[in-house]
Specification:
The chain is an alpha/beta fold and 290 residues long. The chain folds into two domains: 110 residues, no CATH class; 142 residues, Rossmann fold, CATH 3.40.50. Helix content is 42%, strand content 21%. Strand 12 and strand 13 form a beta hairpin. It starts with 7 loop residues before the first helix and ends with a strand.
Length: 290
């Protein structure tokens, strides 16, 4: 059994390794479960592409709701072409317009784009109060710098792909006001967060746990509990053991660091949670934005 990659784009490219021996793979990004089937992986009853799509759609809907609640009404939307990035932007468009927002322009740029002049030429005359970006922080910082240079000062909003200190390290003070979401909540707000951080420090690691560390920990605990349950059930073969582990993961229900860990009939976490962050302060930092 493997713990699947945390980031959706990396998860997709790592699927062959995850599924090579037919073992299930808990995914830390949402503490979801990928179970093996002939020809690849599914998240229990749903294909992996649909599972990733669902995770992206839920995050996009969260961002759309928060954008409207803050007061943004007109969004210029641009994304890279990779499936996760484009999917996030497309789903944001659908969710934002469904609750009264207006999308003034929708543009695709190549992955790793370095020139946003065409997008900005189309977007600026539409007077957007928000620029939504589907992609990752190296490209997002380029977008922020070029938008500001062109006179478009509307804040940038995006998903967890842009929430990295490297974003504002590249964009500098122009990054102030940028909004980005992550899966889950800060570790200090998790039911088992303080104990997890204390135990992590006591173990002597050189750095603090990442934002996904508690989710990876709960994913590993879920995996070990499922293996123990399958062994206790007396699986008679390797294939039987793997099938037993899949069944046991589906029945997972325990109090983890991140909260109650359990999955629906498709292997998705029950009641997924997202958090919105904003770049602010001196020195600059991603600060939880309520």
């Amino acid at each position: 059994m493997r713990i699947a990659r945390a980031f959706l784009a990396l998860l997709l490219v790592s699927l062959p390794a995850c599924s090579s021996d037919g073992s299930p793979a808990p995914a830390p990004i949402v503490v979801g479960v990928l179970a093996p089937v002939e020809g690849g992986l599914v998240e229990f009853g749903r294909g992996i592409a649909d599972s990733v799509r669902l995770a992206v759609a839920e995050q996009a809907a969260f961002l759309a709701r928060r954008a409207r609640a803050i007061g943004y009404a007109r969004a210029a939307v641009v994304s890279e072409t990779k499936a996760v990035s484009k999917g996030l932007a497309d789903d944001f468009v659908a969710a934002f317009t469904a609750i009264g927002g207006v999308v003034t322009v929708r543009t695709l740029v190549p992955d790793d784009a370095k020139d946003f002049s065409s997008f900005l030429a189309d977007a600026i005359p539409t007077d957007p109060d928000l620029v939504f970006f589907g992609g990752e922080y190296p490209v997002a910082s380029t977008l922020r710098r070029q938008a500001s240079a062109a006179g478009l000062d509307a804040p940038v909003m995006g998903g967890d792909g842009i929430k990295d200190p490297a974003y504002f390290e590249s964009a500098g003070r122009l990054a102030v006001g940028t909004l980005a979401s992550t899966v889950g909540v800060p570790v200090e707000e998790m039911p088992g967060g303080p104990d997890f951080v204390a135990s992590y420090a006591a173990a002597g690691f050189d750095s603090a746990p990442s934002a996904y560390g508690p989710y990876a920990y709960d994913a590993a605990i879920a995996a070990m509990r499922a293996i123990r349950a399958a062994l206790d059930a007396g699986a008679g073969s390797s294939a039987g053991l793997r099938a037993g582990v899949v069944d046991a993961l589906g029945a997972t229900d325990f109090a983890g660091v991140t909260g109650r860990v359990r999955f629906d009939e498709s292997g998705d976490p029950v009641d997924p949670v997202f958090t919105l962050y904003r770049v602010e302060g001196d020195p600059l930092a991603w600060v939880e934005w309520r």
